Amino acid sequence: MRPSPKTDVLVAVDTALRPTGFVRRGHVWLEDRGDGVSGWLGFGVAGSLELTPLVGVCFRRYDEVCRALGVGIPATPLVSVPLGFLMGEKPVWRWLFTPGGDHAPVASSLVAAFVEFGKPYVDRCAKWETVAKDLLARPESLLDFERARKLAIIHLLAGNAGAAGEVLRAERERVADKVDAYARSYRAFAHRFEIAFPG
Q: What number is the average pLDDT over the span 63-74?
């Protein structure tokens, strides 16, 4: 059975990525940075042959708390951005592969952009203290639906249970009269958090 066009494209990208130290793990590529830190590369896929690269960093300490709380997916980045966002002027957001074409040149172009713009982002964000400090200083940089959860966990990992509790309380008050899926999910998360990490 012939591989799908999408599989052909991802094989070409995987081949081009090998020299970078990023290794495919399921649907993403990871680079072990030591001390429980991994560089992360994933792709938004439109149709079968258009890839939008996303660059991020995962932290085992963050994943372990998420796992204890029954939230998140292992090896999901704490921080991530589209590669195009990092490229400055004339960014490329999507790489288009031609069906049945030679995928190697497009894959090489994508990886060259990743090495130039994405790897420095991973280098900068691969230090827990740097990322935690940045997120606590600029909480608006987090998406609305993840902000309270991530900030509470970061405070917890910094040993500041009081600040974590304050984040939980403020968000619980904000969604107190809401019945949408996020509000219900958040209230359940906050309840589990307080049981798992009292104080």
A: 87
Q: Strand, helix or coil at 46?
A: strand
CA–CA distance, 74 with 59 (Å, rounded to integer): 10
Tens digit of each residue's pLDDT (9 = 90 or more) over 87-107: 988 899 999 999 888 999 999
39, 33 Cβ separation under 8 angstroms: yes
Identify the DSSP state of 116.
I
Question: By the 8 A CB rule, do 55 and 13 touch?
Answer: no
Cβ neighbourhood burial of 171 (10 Å; 0-12, 13-18, 19+): buried
> What single DSSP character describes residue 18?
G
DSSP 125-158: H--HHHHHHHHHH-GGGS-HHHHHHHHHHHHHHT
